[in-house]
Amino acid sequence: MDVTNMIRRYGAALRALLVFTVLLGLGYPLLIWLATLLPGLHAKAEGSIITAGGKAVGSKLIGQNFTDAAGDPLPQYFQARPSAAGAGYDPMSSGGSNLGPESVVDTPADPAKLVAGASPSDAGFKPSLLTLVCSRSAAIGKLEGVNGSRPFCTGGGVGAVLSVMGPRDARGDVVHPTRVVSVNEPCASTGQPFVDSYRGVRVECARFGEDYSSGLIVPVRGAASSEPQVPADAVTTSGSGLDPDISPAYADIQIARVARARHASPDQIRQVVAQYRTDRMLGFFGEPAVDVLQLNLALDSRYPVAS
User: Fold this and answer.
1) CA-based Rg of the chain, rounded to a whole angstrom?
2) pLDDT by residue (tens digit) across 37-57?
3) pLDDT at residue 276 tops 80
4) How confident is residue 10, by pLDDT bands cut at 50, 70 and 90?
5) What is the spatial distance between Cα 212 and Cα 161, in angstroms, rounded to a whole number?
6) Contact of 78 with 251, CB cutoff 8 Å
7) How far is CA 103 from CA 10, 99, 180, 268, in A?
8) In angstroms, rounded to a whole number, what is the distance separating the alpha carbons of residues 164 and 203?
9) Packing angle between helix 266-275 and helix 292-302, nearest 10 degrees?
10) 245-246 and 49-52: which strand pairing?
């Protein structure tokens, strides 16, 4: 190869590298940064930070917990949607639980570890999506004084799921059940499963270490209303885990509790909620929502709780 041509080619490549480094590595980022300084864009570029008393208290774009040191909901605050992002609303761990509609069977905890003082999660307990929804619904129902029951949930707040064992037909349905186990209820010897019998067979409690996967998994709907009082966004996480808003339905069931804690009337709290409610864009894009952080800040200003 001619040395002169080789030098010319490498020189052209080097010049192109330098030009594009300046344009794309320096010029373009500088242009974007200057654009963020324009009126109306700067606050959004800085994270849409909300301040109170001169201090940053959160972002309009990211939810947060309103709980005490033990993780219990603070009664004077509206509660946000559950989050599966890290320890909750962590932008560095944004994401959902990755559990789908077929996640109905729990991984039980080792009872020996529970007796030794381990937490359920440390003892190996992994709730299914169904049990997460059921337990959250029961807890919110108790907190808000509403009916927390929902279809396919036991009264104790776990997924109402049976493993039905016995001979099957060509479609895979169990013809004559020989054994039925409530797989999400490892109750003690004195406990009772959520249903006494299934198709004439006594229902047993699950036992740790036993495999029930050979049985037909049957979720039991129960008698709960098809329109639960606890709305869906109160018991499920979003895909990002960062949602700052809740549905008006979830806000509505919290009004009575917040009013009691702030010594205000429900109508007074409802008026503040209405101020931080947004409707569908153009009447059909998205869903109505209530901004939790700004609502709680407004309540702190108008109806403060004595410390």
Assistant:
1) 27
2) 677 665 566 667 888 777 888
3) yes
4) confident
5) 11
6) yes
7) 58, 6, 19, 41
8) 9
9) 130
10) unpaired
**Cα–Cα distance between 5 and 95 in angstroms, integer?**
53
Residues 24-52 as b/e (b if ≥16 CB within 10 A, e otherwise) read eeeeeeeeeeeeeeeeeeeeeeeeeebee
pLDDT tens for each residue of 206-227: 999 999 999 999 999 999 999 9
243-268 tens-digit pLDDT = 999 999 999 999 999 999 999 999 99
Residue type, 24: L
Bridge-based pairing of strands 179-182 and 201-205 is parallel
Bridge partners (DSSP) of residue 62 are 59
What was the pLDDT predicted at 43?
57
Q: CA-to-CA distance for 140 and 277, rounded, in angstroms? A: 21
Which DSSP string do the residues of 21-41 spell out, in sequence order? IIIIIIIHHHHHHHHTTSTTT
Interacting residues of 269 by C-beta distance below 8 A, sequence separation 6+? 255, 258, 259, 262, 299, 303
Classify 40 in phi/psi space as left (phi over 0), alpha (psi -120 to 50) or beta: left
